[in-house]
Amino acid sequence: MVDDSKNLKEKIFALKGLAIIGSTDIIGAAISAAFWLIIASVLLVEEYGELSYFIAIASMGICCMVGSPQALTVYSTKYEKIIPTLLLLTLIFTVMASLIAFVIVQRFEIIFLIFSFIVFEASVSILLGKKLYSKYSKFLLTQKILQFAIGIGLSFSLGVNGVLIGIALANFSLIPIFYKELRGYRIDFSFLKPKKEFIINNNMIYIISIFRRDIDKIIVVPILGFTVLGNFALTLQFFAIMMVLSSISYKYLLPKDVSGEKNAKLKKILIMVSILIALSGFFFSPYFIENFFTKYSESIIPIQIVSFSVIPNTISLILFSKILALEKSRFLIIANSVQLCVILIGTIILGTLYGIIGVTIAFVLGNAIYATTLAIINYNYVGKKKFDI
């Protein structure tokens, strides 16, 4: 009876956690989507491309997060005392990264943006790892609302710079969480030694994943210019909207996979729903562009193409969570490296030949190959010759 009561409480807490994460991320994603779509309508296509370019460079700066957000989530669940040491090292590397970024782009906003990304990513990862779902909801929604209000408000007077400042200020709303965790335990670098391999591997995964996420945006500018990047950025914004459900589920699944809990039914439903979302994106996206974003007409076909990437990306998140939870991070390095190479080479070759259509195909191809690589790894090395999600 005691065990049954305990299991019931755990199931209720799990459902409550999923509900909180789900509702928060849906509302947050809606605010974020509205923010970016409004910004896209306010700015010129070229300016929207410029904005995406600077954000991509700032995102490269968060490669200096020691251990990666995923590692922070894992260790917040089962090895909490290492967190302050990881955060201190992260701050040291962030100083160096932000100075390098400033030298490259000559914008002070980039320094604040990099630091704000670090604060946001680290804090959110820790809250999820500790299963503090209510706090996660409170801080995430605060960040989204502030980004919406400040970013749009400053965009009218300061343009691209105003949006960058607004994003940074909104991210800094999570400083209380970051500071509390930094002071939570004593700094002790000896904590790193037994976890060295996992931390290094995860850092490599994270660096590669950041590059594969943003490298195409940086490459597009010298090849095709800011206007093409503006259209491609809107394409990726629609893709991000289509990936909301999968992203929400990943945040819920990772701590569960770390704890050894099976969620096979949820994962299968998620894949089926991703197919429906992909088809909806393909058929309905032209209507939205033609009626609400006429100046982004060149993004219609790319959005239709990228819709089909929702399916492999959803499968990738499911497999990534499982493999990472088992601390088999060396396999993830392989998969991420393969994807980075495909996107890098594909963007240069196909982008040069076919413009924005080629860049989009390279993006979808990279995601499909990534999912295939993870599936092969899961079957051969994790699932023991059995495909088990």
Write up what this structure looks like.
- By secondary structure, the protein is mainly alpha-helical.
- The protein has helices spanning 2-42, 45-61, 68-78, 83-105, 109-129, 133-158, 160-171, 175-182, 196-224, 226-242, 244-258, 264-292, 300-307, 310-325, 329-354, 356-382.
- Helix 1 runs antiparallel to helix 10, helix 3 runs antiparallel to helix 9 and helix 6 packs antiparallel against helix 7 (160-171).
- 48% of the residues are buried.
- The mean pLDDT is 87.
Reconstruct the topology from this structure.
Elements: H1 2-42, H2 45-61, H3 68-78, H4 83-105, H5 109-129, H6 133-158, H7 160-171, H8 175-182, H9 196-224, H10 226-242, H11 244-258, H12 264-292, H13 300-307, H14 310-325, H15 329-354, H16 356-382
Briefly, what is this?
The protein is mainly alpha-helical.
Largest sheet: none
Helical stretch tally: 16
Uncertain regions: pLDDT < 50 for 5+ in a row? none
- Could you tell me the radius of gyration in angstroms? 20 Å
- What's the rounded overall pLDDT mean? 87
Q: Kindly state the percentage of residues in helix.
A: over 70%
Report the end-to-end length measured between terminal Cα atoms: 31 Å
Work out the count of structural domains. Answer: 1
- Residues in β-strands, percent: under 5%
Q: What's the shape?
A: globular
Features:
84% helix, mainly alpha, globular, 16 helices, 389 residues
